[in-house]
Amino acid sequence: MTPTVTLNDGTALPVIGLGTVQSEGEDMAATVTAALSSGYRLIDTALRYETEPGVGRAVAASSVPREDILITTKIPGRLHGYDEAKESARTSLDNLGVDYIDLLLIHWPLPKVDNYIDTWRAMIDLQKEGVVRSIGVSNFTAAHLDRLVSETSVVPSVNQIELHPYFPQADLRAYHAEHGIVTESWSPLGRGSELLTAPPVAEAAAAHGVSEGQVVLRWHIQLGAVPLPKSSNPDRQKQNLDIFGFELTDDEMVAISGLERGRIWGQDPDVYEEF
Ligand SMILES: NC(=O)C1=CN([C@@H]2O[C@H](COP(=O)(O)OP(=O)(O)OC[C@H]3O[C@@H](n4cnc5c(N)ncnc54)[C@H](OP(=O)(O)O)[C@@H]3O)[C@@H](O)[C@H]2O)C=CC1
Ligand SMILES: O=C(O)C(=O)[C@@H](O)[C@H](O)C(=O)CO
């Protein structure tokens, strides 16, 4: 059973989940089916990924009770606004074939569009209506979060951010901790970069007799973050979940965090827009 962290609304969130940004020709239903069989209970998708139907088919076919699986999805930039956000949630419910969403996030703040407050107000109402269990955001900065809370008085349960040893985001993680917001890590393995071959990662893997991927995911856990590694490979899915039988030393944590060099794709939420 994967350990959980309690969100500010009382929800128990597994401390690791499966990402579902699709690879070329991938059968997402098969990927998620394998993951559920391996013990994943948190699945991260988005309207924009076009993987909600595959996630939904896997959940429907699984012997794991629906109530034991937490599904996260996200509202894309093209559907910011009160009515649009509600439309997005309805579309995701249909795509997933479920009657509630466990965690709904705003995918990107799009501050130049400047409509994320209305989007958040819709999500607050969706939560009150029982359509959504928990509400959060993604790619929000501290300034975006400050404005959201000052204008609505509702603190997001989660902020899902780019987080990996190249970009440890210590200041934003500290802000989250001060405000009762759980940090989720996207691209936790540095998707496709050379992160897993970095010397501090390789040395820790050798010292603990685990893989480089397990070292990096353990680094997230020990930071108090919730990583969402994506793997279509059942063996690597299992490996990624098997990170609770060892502990990185303080020196190893410092060395891995010392790989800091910045964002992988330069997606600064103050200017990056995705619709
Ligand atoms: N909110 C947002 O804006 C964003 C959210 N996300 C979320 O985060 C998830 C994860 O991020 P993502 O960008 O997919 O990339 P990850 O950092 O999770 O890396 C995924 C890649 O790593 C490989 N991999 C997985 N496990 C291992 C392992 N143990 N050893 C070596 N390689 C491994 C996978 O290949 P293989 O499949 O062959 O194992 C895949 O190519 C996404 O799927 C999405 O759900 C991502 C980006 C932005
Ligand atoms: O995958 C996501 O959720 C995104 O927001 C993408 O833009 C992601 O950042 C990506 O694909 C980067 O190339």
Give your account of this protein's structure.
By secondary structure, the protein is of the alpha/beta class. The chain has a single domain (4-257), classed as TIM Barrel, CATH 3.20.20. Helices cover 39% and strands 15% of the residues. The chain has ten helices and ten strands. The chain has helices at 28-38, 52-61, 82-96, 116-128, 142-152, 170-179, 199-208, 212-223, 234-241, 250-257, and strands at residues 4-6, 12-14, 18-19, 42-44, 70-75, 101-106, 132-138, 158-162, 182-186, 226-227. The protein has an eight-stranded parallel beta sheet with strand order 3-4-5-6-7-8-9-10. It has a two-stranded antiparallel ribbon with strand order 1-2. A hairpin with a 5-residue loop joins strand 1 and strand 2. Helix 1 crosses helix 2 and helix 4 packs across helix 5. The radius of gyration is 18 Å and the shape is globular. The mean pLDDT is 97. The ligand O=C(O)C(=O)[C@@H](O)[C@H](O)C(=O)CO binds at residues 21, 46, 265, 267, 274. Pfam families: Aldo_ket_red. Belongs to the aldo/keto reductase family.
Features of this protein?
275 residues; alpha/beta; TIM Barrel; 8-stranded parallel β-sheet; two-stranded antiparallel sheet; 10 helices; 39% helix; binds NADPH dihydro-nicotinamide-adenine-dinucleotide phosphate; binds the ligand O=C(O)C(=O)[C@@H](O)[C@H](O)C(=O)CO
Q: What kind of sheet is the major sheet?
A: 8 strands, parallel
Helix and strand content put the structural class at: alpha/beta
Q: What is the count of helical runs?
A: 10
Please name the CATH architecture.
Alpha-Beta Barrel
Q: Give the radius of gyration.
A: 18 Å
CATH topology call: TIM Barrel
CATH superfamily: NADP-dependent oxidoreductase domain
Pfam family, one: Aldo_ket_red
Protein name: Aldo/keto reductase
Domain NADP-dependent oxidoreductase: 16-259
Family: Belongs to the aldo/keto reductase family.
